[in-house]
Amino acid sequence: MKTRAAVAFEAKKPLEIVEIDLEGPKEGEVLVEIMATGICHTDAYTLDGLDSEGIFPSVLGHEGAGVIRAVGPGVKSVKQDDHVIPLYTPECRQCKSCLSGKTNLCTAIRATQGKGVMPDGTSRMSYKGETIYHYMGCSTFSNFIVLPEIAVAKIREDAPFDKACYCGCGVTTGVGAVTHTAKVTPGANVVVFGLGGIGLNVIQGARMVGADKIIGVDINDSKAEWGRKFGMTDFVNPTKIDGDIVSHLIAMTDGGADFTFDCTGNTTVMRQALEACHRGWGVSTVIGVAEAGKEISTRPFQLVTGRVWKGSAFGGMKGRTDVPKIVDWYMNGKIEIDPMITHVLTLEEINKGFDLMHAGESIRSVVVF
Ligand code: NAD
Ligand code: AHE
Ligand code: ZN
What we know:
alpha/beta, 2 domains, zinc ion binding, 6-stranded parallel beta sheet, binds nicotinamide-adenine-dinucleotide, Rossmann fold, 369 residues, Quinone Oxidoreductase, Chain A, domain 1
């Protein structure tokens, strides 16, 4: 079949909206009509050529929601007309990682996913006879896409696509990092670095679990008001304080935070987030994705004296099991999504979504097909 898609033909070039060819679902695969997709900073990072796994030409996008229109042979867990969210962290429920009960990082199809192809080693997409690669196993910037059945989470049918799509990455990542990775406790002091589409979800997750002080740190002053909407109690712009940010935060938290989160992808900030933790027990969780080649460092003494450095992918949440629950949390009013969707765009306007993100003017732009 033919489908409209925003194709990244080259790094650092705007996406082009073209009609591509899409092969139908093979064994264990489903055809999904994407109804809406968010634009996450990770899409921009790959488009900017900063992802060591970036492949071009490809269809980016990994924050979608849609409807299953057809299923391939052998598909058992979902059916035509089911409403689903594509999963860049699938859940096969059979691999060592899934069976361990210790991680959400299913390994069943990670190797082919990283190479931009389906589990059988081939792509379903092409344009003028040339292969177009998949991205993060999702490629939600295409109106129709083929996905492995283990890489879709079935969600309730009354959830609006233009909001539920955000659970395909940002909401689940931010809220889950609090509830599933760091396991923030009621009464804790929390510091969140970077108040974008991920950081604001960390803030609302911290509010949900009953954190006490929730300090937001951002170099963009306009993010202060955004943080307050979702439970931030204090704001710091590190470019506008006397002295260094770590000492400033330690003073604000009576010796250091119980939990800190990096939602910037900046390795200097990651170090600050670790060092702003309380001696003896503070836990710092890296969520931000750093440019290829960047490394983190700190004095080992920071760890010897009890600070813990953790990382979180997709909020530590299992795709097929936990994503439908996050959607329920939204539908039941436990968490908010609507105010974070600052811009709704057509597919033709998708490059504007990247511009708004780079200018710090959006929280989430959502493309509606
Ligand atoms: P965003 O662009 O919406 O927000 C980033 C925020 O960080 C902005 O408000 C920006 O002003 C702020 N910032 C930048 N530099 C800063 C600094 N030096 N100090 C303080 N604040 C600073 O991006 P997003 O969509 O929220 O994504 C944030 C990061 O999380 C990205 O690196 C993205 O790739 C990553 N991410 C990771 C996961 C995961 O599973 N681990 C999932 C989604 C996104
Ligand atoms: N491909 C990059 C790493 C990118 C990365 O860390 N991705 C996060 C999700 S970001 C979503 O916005 C993730 O979940 N990673 C786990 C995984 O298995 O990819 C690189 O450095 O090569
Ligand atoms: Zn993302």
